[in-house]
């Protein structure tokens, strides 16, 4: 069965450590994909406005942002997984009891929000990932549809904290780590795999026709459910064991682009090799 959709994570997967990528090479690949009738989508835990900033023609692509909470296809909003007000407020109070958590962002469909205590230097750093980021004196004053919370903790404590939050917020929110001490809180059932399925329903495609790329546990569902899911060479070791397919090269070596080119050059041999 031919590939009809390619979905990629960005950080640690598609672009390099400095957030760059071989643009000329990718643009050539994208042209080939379009001519072959293959769609291309980005799936990330980051903000939609950050994701589109990397591409010249985002209106030709689909974007799954905030780990599946917001889906936009060709510039049109397709799905928003809004968190109930009492739930995200409860979560804010809970995460503030953890001294290991040093950053709390509340992410809405229009913007992300941080407390006034965040210094401007750190705000500017976070704006690399959340171009729309506003300081608020009180999170309860936010007038937006809240779709995710982004936490940053000391890396050695992230997995433990995520497990504890999942127990304390069971049935309300789900905590997932995305590497480097980052923890996302989203509605239960919301993940990149679910978001990919929503796009497939719109386009009348099947999971067997999807190729996905990722490196962290927040990519798990879309890697396991796709017909051809690849964990990058630099990816999470547990994820490599679960998924089985590992890209021969890392994100720094353009491992994803190399595999896509391999498919485009000879689809039948590629699918047989990686089945």
Name a few traits of the molecule.
alpha/beta, 10 helices, globular
Brief rundown of the structure:
The chain is an alpha/beta fold and 275 residues long. 33% of the residues lie in helices and 23% in strands. α7 (220-225) links the parallel β12 (210-214) and β13.
Describe this structure in words.
There is one protein chain. With about 280 residues, this protein is α/β, with parallel strands linked by helices. About 35% of the residues lie in helices and about 25% in strands. β10 and β11 (about 180-185) form a beta hairpin. The relative contact order is 0.17.
Element layout with pairings:
Elements: E1 5-8, H1 23-35, E2 39-43, H2 48-51, E3 62-65, E4 70-73, E5 76-80, H3 85-95, E6 101-108, E7 112-115, H4 120-126, E8 133-136, E9 146-153, H5 158-168, E10 174-177, E11 182-186, H6 192-203, E12 210-214, H7 220-225, E13 228-231, H8 237-243, H9 255-265, H10 267-274
Parallel strand pairs: 1-2, 1-12, 2-3, 7-8, 12-13
Antiparallel strand pairs: 3-4, 4-5, 6-7, 6-9, 9-11, 10-11
């Amino acid at each position: 069965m031919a590939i009809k959709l390619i979905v990629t994570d960005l950080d640690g997967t598609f672009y390099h450590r400095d957030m760059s990528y071989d643009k000329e090479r990718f643009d050539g690949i994208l042209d080939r994909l379009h001519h072959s009738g293959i769609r291309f989508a980005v799936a990330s835990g980051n903000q939609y406005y950050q994701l589109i900033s990397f591409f010249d023609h985002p209106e030709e692509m689909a974007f799954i942002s905030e780990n599946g909470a917001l889906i936009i296809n060709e510039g049109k909003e397709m799905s928003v997984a809004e968190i109930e007000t009492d739930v995200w407020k409860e979560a804010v109070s809970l995460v503030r009891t953890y001294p290991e958590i040093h950053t709390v962002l509340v992410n809405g469909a229009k913007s992300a929000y941080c407390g006034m205590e965040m210094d401007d230097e750190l705000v500017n750093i976070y704006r690399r990932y959340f171009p729309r980021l506003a300081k608020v004196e009180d999170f309860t004053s936010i007038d937006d549809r809240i779709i995710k919370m982004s936490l940053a903790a000391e890396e050695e404590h992230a997995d433990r904290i995520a497990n504890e939050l999942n127990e304390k917020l069971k049935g309300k929110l789900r905590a997932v780590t995305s590497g480097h001490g980052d923890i996302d809180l989203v509605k239960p059932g919301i993940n990149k795999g679910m978001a990919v399925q929503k796009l497939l329903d719109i386009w009348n495609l099947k999971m067997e026709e999807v190729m996905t790329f990722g490196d962290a546990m927040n990519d798990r569902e879309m890697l396991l459910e796709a017909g051809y899911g690849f964990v990058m060479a630099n990816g999470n070791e547990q994820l490599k064991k679960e998924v089985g397919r590992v890209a021969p090269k890392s994100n720094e070596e353009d491992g994803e682009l190399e595999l896509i080119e391999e498919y485009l050059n000879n689809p039948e041999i590629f699918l047989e090799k990686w089945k």
